[in-house]
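== Polypeptide entry ==
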Amino acid sequence: MDLTAELARFNPDPALEKWLSETVQALADQAQKDAATIKLAHLKIAALTLELAHHRRMQFGAKTEALSSEQRDLFIETCNIDLAAIQAEVAQVMPPAPKAPRKTAGRQALPENLPRIEHRHEIDNCTCGQCGKDLIKIGEDISEQLDVEPARFFVHRHIRPQYACRACETVVAAAIPPAVIDGGLAAPGLHAWVVVQKYLDHLPLYRIEQISRRHGVPIARSTLAEWVGRIGVQLQPLADRLVELLRQRAVLHADETPVQQLDPGKGKTKRAYLWVYRSNDLDPGAAMVVFDYQASRSGSNVQAFLRGWQGHLMVDDYAGYKALFRTGVTELACLAHARRKFFELFAANGHPLAAEALQRIGALYAIEQAGKNMAPNEREQLRKQEAKPQCAAMHAWLIDHRKKVADNSSIAKAMDYSLKRWPAIARYAESGNLPIDNNPVENTIRPIAIGKKNWLFAGSERAGRRAAAIQSLLGTAKLNGLEPLAWL
C-alpha cells in the first residue's frame, strides 16, 4: 500500500484536523518539558553523587586527598599500634620464630648533637672459660638507645657576694642578671617552655598547671597567665620586625582561617579570623611566616596589612583579595585548588574529562619537581620550554571541551573555575621564582587549624593578637629548621 497516495486522497474534517494538530503540538510541548526536567534531574543526581562520594571519602578514605596528612597519619598510627599489640599477644601464646639476620642498613642514626651517657658493661671474669688463660680486649660492641627526660624542674640559685669598704662604708655587689620579668619567679627556660606549650603545642594553661603539679611544682594558673601576658609584650618588637622583613619580599602567599573569640556580653563566641602571610620558598633568604589576627574576614584587613606593598601575591579565589589587584599587586592563582575540583569529580564517578585534566596538571607538577633544585634562571628556562606550552595546550583544551558539556554540570563548574582564573594560574610559568600553588601557606596554617580544637576560642581580641605575634615567631623558627624552645 502506498501510504503517501492514501494520505493525499484523505480529506479529513477540519475540526478533526485542528484537534490532531493541537494534540500533536501539546505532545511535543510536553516532551520538551519532560526533556528539560530529565536534564535537571540528571544534573542534580550528578551533583548529589559527587557530594555523596566526597563525604564517603571524608569518612572512610585513607589514601586519598579526602584526609589531611594529620588525619592519614592518625589512621596509620592506629593500625600500627594495633598490629604491634596483636604481635605481642601472639608472642605470649606461641614460641618465638627464629629471627632473620639483621640488616646493617637499618634504622636512621641518632643525631650527633644529643648528649651521650655511657654505660660500660664489663664481663665478670677476665679469664677464658675454656682454657683459663687471660683475656685481651680486641674491640667494643656499641649500641645506642634513645631516651627522654620529661619536663625537669630545677632551681637557679644566684649568689651575689657583697663587699664593703671599711674606709667609706660602701657596699659593692655584682649586678642583678637581666630577666624577662624583673623580680619574677621563672628563669628564661621556664618562660620559653610555657610559651611553647601554649602556642606551639596548643595546651591551655590549666593543662600546663596540671603538668607542673605532677612534677611537684605547683604553679598557679594566674601566675602562668601573668607570665604569658608580659612575655607577649616583650616579644612584640620581634614580631613587628618580622612583619617589616616580610613586606620586603617580592612574592608572598596569603590565606585565612576562622577562629572563635569569646563574646562575654552575649555569653557565647563570635567568629574572628587569623590571616596568614608567608614568604616564597623559591626566593633566596630565610623563610618567614606572619599571623595577623583580625575581628573579621573583610578584605580591608589584608589591604591594611599590605598597604603600599607591590609584588606577586598567591591567594585563593576569595573576593576579599580582589581590591589589591587594582592597586598594582599582581595576582597568582593556586593550581592545587584547580586540581582539587577535578580530583573530587574523578573520585566520585571517574569522569574521563576530569581524568585528563588531572593528567595534564600532573605533567605540570612533574616539570616543577624536575626543576626543584635548579637556580632561578635555569628553572625559568625549563618552565618556558616545557611548562608554558603545556599550560597553553591545557587552556585550549579547557575552552574546547567547555563548549561540549552542559551548563551547571559538575565538570562545567570545575572547568569554569580554572578558566576564570587561568591568566593568574599560568603566570608562574613566565618566571623562575614564582610559586605554582598556595600549598606552602596551607601547610603552615594547618597546625593552627588543628590546635584550635584544643584551645576552642581566643579570650579577647588582644589575646588573639598576642597569640598571632608569638605564633609568627615560633612558626618562623620551625620553617628555618630551628628548635623553637631552644631558639626562644
Summary: The chain has 15 helices and seven strands. The first strand starts at residue 162 and ends at 164. Residues 335-436 form one domain. The radius of gyration is 34 Å.
